[in-house]
Write a structure and sequence with these properties.
By secondary structure, the chain is mainly alpha-helical. It has five helices and two strands, in the order H-H-H-H-H-E-E. It has a two-stranded antiparallel ribbon. The N and C termini lie far apart (about 50 Å).
């Protein structure tokens, strides 16, 4: 058994109203490099979520796009997709777009397991948390005692209790 992080399945694929009664569900595991994963996500995103900004997508949407692409095409075209990605990168084509897509992918598939954002956290809350971590001047950012990776995500207006990404609160004075 592999010691690599395992993600999915997020949802069952091939669910249609016009299908006969389901008999079973088959889970298939794909081992992918980061480059292969990015190529799969880019094409899954282009197929289903092109009108959505990648940074606004939930972890579930990103994972669903990857799983849907793999379910629809298997590994049949994977090497072609990786070559297309390499060609784009070598030409410097769409570098900003590729960066945004890679950041979204890293949110859904972090290099270290357990670092993915929980599904129940609203994207706006995640944005405030990012602001706190990155030092956005509109965000309080007060470090949480014993949990420095989870600073206060309230705005800079006065508040007696601080609150983190997971809804935990703590008392604190003014922001340092």
């Amino acid at each position: 058994m592999s010691t690599l992080p395992v993600y999915g399945p997020t949802d069952t694929q091939n669910v249609h109203d016009d299908q006969p009664a389901p008999h079973l569900v088959v889970h298939v595991a794909y081992q992918l490099s980061r480059e292969e994963l990015l190529a799969v996500f880019i094409h899954g995103y282009a197929t289903t979520n092109l009108g959505t900004e990648p940074h606004g997508m939930t972890v579930e949407q990103i994972r669903y796009d990857v799983e849907a692409y793999l379910a629809d095409t298997s590994l049949l075209y994977l090497s072609d997709r990786v070559e297309e990605l390499r060609a784009q990168q070598a030409a410097g084509k769409d570098a900003a777009r590729l960066h945004v897509l890679a950041k979204a992918m890293d949110r859904a598939y972090p290099a270290k397991p357990g670092k993915a954002a929980p599904a129940a956290i609203h994207p706006e809350i995640l944005d405030w948390h990012r602001g706190a971590v990155e030092g956005d001047p509109a965000v309080c950012g007060m470090p949480q005692p014993g949990q420095p990776a989870f600073p206060c995500l309230w705005n800079r207006s006065a508040h007696s209790d601080h609150r983190d990404l997971l809804g935990r609160t703590w008392r604190g004075g003014e922001r340092p």
